[in-house]
## 1
Amino acid sequence: MDSASSIQARRGDLARTVVDRLYERRPDLPDRYGPFGREKCVADIGYHLLYLSEAVAADSPALFREYVAWVKVLFAGLGIPWTDLEESLRILDDVLEDTIGGETARRARACIAAALQALPGAPDDLPPLIAPDAPHADLASAYLEALLEGDRRRAATLVVDRVEAGLPVRDVYLHVFQPAMREVGRLWQTGRISVAHEHFATAATQAVMGMLYPRIFSGHRIGRTLVATCISGEQHEIGIRMVADFFEMDGWDTYYVGANTPTPAILRTVRERRADVLAVSATITGHIGAVADLVRALRAEAAAPPPYVLVGGYPFNIDSDLWHKVGADAFAGAADEAVRIAGRLVGILPPPAGEAAR
């Protein structure tokens, strides 16, 4: 997955070239976006190039197409017309043809073409992610409201009271925490809340999860070990924490090593804990290369046979073959699914009919 290294290496220069051409073409932009607008535009194009390079490396136009659709919603919340995004992508396409060339440029331009084709029809807003008829939607909505009001105590009480009344912790994770945090992400993306709100909601939810741990760590053990981590650079850790807790509830011994964990630390933990499975989360397309690097490093270890690698996160939901491209053994789209797949990989659950576990 190194075919996009020329884009990565020249990302800053390429971004400035795109913005220079954009501002030459659009003399109205300095007045529209102010004295700092040019540098913000350079930063935005730099992000486009980061995601583009990962899509090229994975040979996955879908990754860049979905990223651009995400940006369209983000820009709409900021009052930036999607046609500005379209124009900058067309200029980026020209710049890559002029400066990069070769197979890398061809693949990059294919990714841009796919994104441009889908862009006009992509939504500029997203519907709420807590469906009224979803299981425990009343609790999820009340919990979200408490988070947005900054009332950590009420949020915790809502959940703990319901658990004490008999609601399984698994259901809290799947039907309360997960949809509520996805809705927080949607509200931030659409400009309805600040990043401070998002950080508060994440920290509060992690605290409530901690309050439920006595109910998680009291079950049977099956003699299998999971190491769970976010890739280096990845800050979105709540999803992989939920995955680790589901394994714990199913009897696994789990070692969650946190967000933004360097590869050497992950490898050392895998060795020390003699992990059967390594679960790796990457929620941002720009981190896919780091996942592939980690898997390669794990496979290159001269010690005992490496653990199975289970990956998950938003990019893997977009490209159904991406897990294979990064060298993993399997992909899971949800915490409960991850436990089932890991059980099949290590042989404690039978594979589905007609399917082998590696």
## 2
Amino acid sequence: MSKLWSGRFSEDTDAFVEEFTQSVSFDRELAYEDIEQDIAHVKTLFKAGVISEEEKEKLIKGLLDLKKDIEEGKVEWKSRLEDVHMNLEALLTERLGDVGGKLHTGRSRNDQITTDERLYLKKQLRGILSLLKQLRITLLDLAQKHIDVLLPSYTHLQRAQPIRLAHYFLAFREMFLKDSERFADAYRRIDELTLGSGAVAGVDFPLDRFFTASELGFNRVSRNSMYATADRDFIAEFLFCCACTGMHLSRLSEDLILWASEEFGYIELPDKLCTGSSIMPQKKNPDVLELIRGKTGRLYGNLIALMTTVKALPMSYNRDLQEDKEPLFDSVRTLKGSLSGMIKVLKGLRPKSEVMERNAGNFVLITDVANFLVDKGVPFRRAHEIAGRIVAYLIDRSRRLEDMSLEEFKMFSEDFDESVLELLNPQVVADRRKTFGGTSKERLLEAIEAAKLEEGV
């Protein structure tokens, strides 16, 4: 089959150009979306009186047969035909004759590809949102199961204040909930039909674009043909959402990697999700978590690659936009794999509560000792200084805060009384955080119930 545009040229395309410019090696991933779009376009052409009913039926049957052949691996993709669109059209014309050549009437590959990409993204977003919900429910289950486990929170990677482990898991659930909201919001802008925009200026056949949108399940129709063919911000927005979710996955991975180390010893990871060393027999490496952390860099890179490609393009379509697909496909695969991996890790990890709870004591409790003095009327800055001197006193003696007697507390301030000793219990201290969003058991039980309602579980 001759190239669609061969009539204007006097020479055959150089073999290098054919290989360098082809995209079918990767955009054939859009084959099902392309056929779905083709069938809707055929119905629109018939409605407009451009093709007969017999031609419509023949084209639709030919396209469905093509789809079946793709599913069975019987289609040979040819790089000389450039892309998925021309490969499918060539196969259809080869089977049906001239009627196959009518498929491209009233359409350009410029509006065709953005329609394919939007159809593809809508399907992939539904899968990603489902994985994010599974991840949130897994975190919610962990929060409910381990609500009575105490551990230190960290700022600057230094022990800060005692929290309940449930509070930690719900913090990440909150992050992934915001990620889901971003993807859902992006879905609204992706859900827009661009087919019928032609190459740049619209189409001179009486195509009912609203009918086509209904056939393809789009909620809106694009309002400007130049925008429709030049725009890639819907992909950039999707890639940003992927990168942001990857950032959250990476932060969770980093914590769990640290927590699984002997230095922390907070969790035990399942053997089946770790690997060993080829030389050091004692090693148990958290490779899944390390790869999730590492793959976040690819999610960032794909976003920057597309933004850099598009930033200086004149209106409207330019061939540079062919470079939007590989970052898109890679981010979809990378994110879905990372989400699946994190769900498996979380379902298999085992907290070591005794280690966590020991580290939730000692100087992690000292802020509440200072606040005890504030409750007695001591100005906070003065209370802070007294608490700091208590820390120095205990460090010099290699002792823990829990070892302090009331007599020793009174050495630093006569405002201390026996009730200060109650604050040497991490559980008591954590449960003093009763503000909305705090780590007290009372607030966390409320948060868990609210989350269960949100998730429908």
